[in-house]
Design brief:
124 residues, alpha+beta, 4-stranded antiparallel sheet, globular, RRM domain-containing protein, RNA-binding
Length: 124
């Protein structure tokens, strides 16, 4: 039987345990517990997006915010919250480039969400 060193996180938290000490996944100074996700299709529903992120330890919620440009083009802002910055870092590194649809050419681009309080403190 094939023993996968990175088991599907949907079934247990071993995935988190295996990679939390890996340097690639260590939170940086500007890390936050919230992620901004670019590349979500305009017709996506919160439930669809949550299915991508929910299997990961520390998942709290997805926030989809519908916006419109001055010219009337609609788009979605997507934020995903986790318990802490380490969990958010692991998810960001793991799902970077994830293709939402089979015709998706670029995949998701995931960043740490800006923390306005932190930015104000850094400017002082």
């Amino acid at each position: 039987m094939f023993n996968n060193p990175y088991p599907n996180p949907m079934f247990n938290n071993q995935y988190f345990e295996l990679i939390r000490d890996n340097q690639q996944f260590q939170p940086q100074k500007d890390s936050t517990h919230s992620l901004y996700v670019d590349g979500i299709p305009n017709d996506a529903q919160e439930r669809e997006v949550a299915h991508i992120f929910r299997p990961y330890p520390g998942f709290q919620r997805v926030r989809l915010i519908k916006k419109q440009t001055q010219k009337g083009r609609e788009y979605l802002l997507c934020f995903v919250d986790f318990d802490d910055a380490l969990q958010a870092t692991i998810v960001m590194q793991t799902l970077q480039g994830y293709r939402f649809d089979k015709n998706d050419k670029t995949g998701l681009k995931i960043y740490f969400a800006n923390n306005p309080k932190q930015e104000k403190q850094n400017k002082k």
